[in-house]
Amino acid sequence: MRVLVVGDAMLDVVVRPLGPLAPTSDTPARVRLGRGGAAANLAVALAAADASVRVEYAAAVGDDAAGELFRRELEASAVRARLEVHPGATGVVVALVGADAERAMMTDRGVNSDLSLAHLSALLEEDFAHLHVSGYSVLDPRTRPLVTTLLAMARDAGVSTSVDVCSVEPLRQLGAELFVAAASGASMVFANEEEALALSGAEDVEAALTTLASRWDEALVTRGSRGALVRRQERMWSAPAVHVDALDTTGAGDCATGTYLAGRLAGADVGECLRRAMDAAAVVVAGLGSRGQSRL
Q1: Which of 190, 202, 259, 263 sits in a 20 to 30 Å window from 51, CA-based?
Q2: 230 pairs with which residues across the strands?
Q3: d(C-alpha 130, C-alpha 161), whole Å
Q4: If DSSP states are collapsed to H, E and C, what string results for the chain?
């Protein structure tokens, strides 16, 4: 089975201060540098969850060292990089991690907005069983039209599809109606609780899940330490989080959705897929960075 994931190429700089910030001076910190990108995290988790799935990743990178690092680290994680190179800088995100393991992110999208329809449509002509598209591609006005076209192409080819909302503040700025209009051709939608509430206009998570499942065939909502919920047609499933000492929540939702998607593509039961997703997310939150690769 081949899966095409479309998303951003990002270099992650994860910073965890070890004390109060010292303006105009130095603050001791733990800093980790590596491959980032929400959809890339999902792609790596998908590949790790099922070795029989061939995962390929489409994105735009700059003609710089960050782009080469992104390519090397992605392929070292068993994901084939199908990257379009543009003059300029690869995207960078600086994640500042607080003592509560939550993070604030400062993002420079670099050349991600330059990803072209020609590159993506040529890839989709190959034999893929599933297409996943990052919500960042929907939120970006330059790539939003590509998403609608790609989802329609996939649907016409009989390929299942999914979309991940990715970020609540840009969603609020865009407006839920535009996001739904661009991504309504997908089979599945993934969101965290904040994103689900913003996208649905509902006041509680179960009502939000019901609304999302009326617009997409299957909806997954991750809830951090409160686990995750799925709704498909008239049935709802839930799974508790696996509680660990959390160091950094960066990438936990991406890992959970990638693991969940791998199970669903293999035909596994929704409940079992949710349990696997929670196990995978626990590994990530116990480490520093989007893959849980470093402990303090």
Answers
A1: 190
A2: 220, 237
A3: 6
A4: CEEEEECCCEEEEEEEECCCCCCCCCCCEEEEEEEECHHHHHHHHHHHHCCCCEEEEEEEEECCHHHHHHHHHHHHCCEEEEEEEECCCCEEEEEEECCCCCEEEEEECHHHHHCCHHHHHHHHCCCCCEEEEEHHHHHCCCCHHHHHHHHHHHHHCCCEEEEECCCHHHHHHHCHHHHHHHHCCCCEEEEEHHHHHHHHCCCCHHHHHHHHHHHCCEEEEECHHHCEEEEECCEEEEECCCCCCCCCCCCHHHHHHHHHHHHHHCCCCHHHHHHHHHHHHHHHHCCECCCCCECC
- Which domains are delineated in the chain? 2-9+36-89+109-285 (3.40.1190.20)
Count Cβ atoms below 10 Å from residue 208 Cβ, excluding itself.
25
The answer to whether the CB of 236 falls within 8 A of the CB of 211 is no
Assess contact for 138 and 170: CB atoms under 8 A: no
78 and 200 in contact (C-beta within 8 Å)?
no
Mean pLDDT (the chain) is 92
Lookup: tokens for 176:
């839920």
> What b/e readout covers 225-255, taking b as 16+ CB neighbours within 10 angstroms?
eebbbbbbeeeebbbebbeeebbbbbbbbbb
260 and 273 in contact (C-beta within 8 Å)?
yes
Averaged over 217-221, what is the pLDDT? 97
* pLDDT, mean of residues 107-121: 96
Question: What pLDDT shows up at residue 232?
Answer: 95
Closest CA to 45 of 132, 160, 143: 132
Q: What is the CA radius of gyration of the chain?
A: 18
